[in-house]
Write the structure tokens for this entry.
Amino acid sequence: MTSVRLDQVLEEALARSAEAAGETPSEFIRAAIRARIEAMSSQSAREALAPFIGVVESEHGSEARRSGAAFTELLVGRTR
């Protein structure tokens, strides 16, 4: 079992929110923790976007390939 200490403002907000959701504060906390864990353990943005990476073609493709170099030049110019 884990205990969590809340300041008074958070404790009051928890009570109001749990009541509005029709849950006990413990149920509300467990649901919030579960949602946060699921969000943290879900696939990365790269994994989610993998089917789309490299799919789009542009008539300005050569400019896009040079964007990293152009950005580096911009940063170098600012440090001088």
